[in-house]
Design a protein that fits this description.
Radius of gyration: 22 Å
Oligomer: single chain
Distance between the termini: 72 Å
Bound molecules: S-adenosylmethionine
Number of domains: 2
Structural class: alpha/beta
CATH topology of the largest domain: Rossmann fold
Order of helices and strands: HEHEHEHEHEHEHHEEEHHHH
CATH class of the largest domain: Alpha Beta
Strand content: 15-25%
Length: 292
Amino acid sequence: MINYNSATALRSFLDEENLGMRKKFGQNFLINPQVRLSLVSALDAQVSDEVWEVGPGLGAMTALLLEKGLAVKAFEIDAGFIRILKRIFSQEKNFSLVEGDVMKTWSGQQSAPFLLGNLPYNVGAALLADLIEKGRTFSRIVVTVQKEVALRMSASAGSPDYSSFSVLCASAYKVKPLMVIRPSSFYPQPNVDSMGVLLEKRDEDAPPAVFFQLVRALFSSRRKTIKNNLSAFCASRFGSTAFCADILRENALTGMERAEDFPLEVFLSLAKTIENMRILNRDVNSGKHSKN
Ligand code: SAM
């Protein structure tokens, strides 16, 4: 049995197994048992619920999830860790392993209601964005990410951390920061603070198809007005800026506002206006503006 709470014990284990830590896979083990318990408890999953665990490493969180009677599907990229995970958990009927890069493997897997991950810094935001954009939502997600990423996820309109990623997260989830996790809770210690974050699914319908592209476009030049960014979006998407004025008018906007001050509802409303224009079959693709 691995002692997941001790940096020294983990180092010896890795040496014995001839395993190295791969910086490019963001490998930092969570050695603080209280933090691990708090994260699993925040997930609030019940016996036999299915959980996706991203980046199980040597299985510190996996063991806790299985102890709770949950069915764990673990996504791991590191061949050395995969060997250890198979050795420890292959007899567990509630454990399955998906080998490889989660960014490539997740879409082939059946949905689960829960996701938990001490996500590698380089993958955390990209994976969450990909899941949301492709409409793969979970009832509850608990992740550990770099504090800076957590602040962007939970930022409100008007705050300096507010970004297209904040809007993306808010479109699918209520985002709640759980706790700051200091570098000393990890082995090896990262250079920055981390944060546990809970995402609870919102009951709303999925946003219109154009929503994600639109949000990104409206934040693309942060200091530019909404009119400038919307014109660039309409030009690239419809080959014309002819509809910008209508889109702004229908949303009671002057065009001088900035995306960083808009709450989620304004982005949704703008996306719905654009979607309706398409449904009303205005000739957006040719750039001709029909009054009918
Ligand atoms: N869950 C363990 C813990 O809390 O101690 C390890 C967390 S460590 C920060 C991140 C884990 O994600 C590592 O096991 C790493 O190999 C794995 N990983 C990194 N990139 C990945 C990817 N693209 N797909 C799947 N796993 C990945």
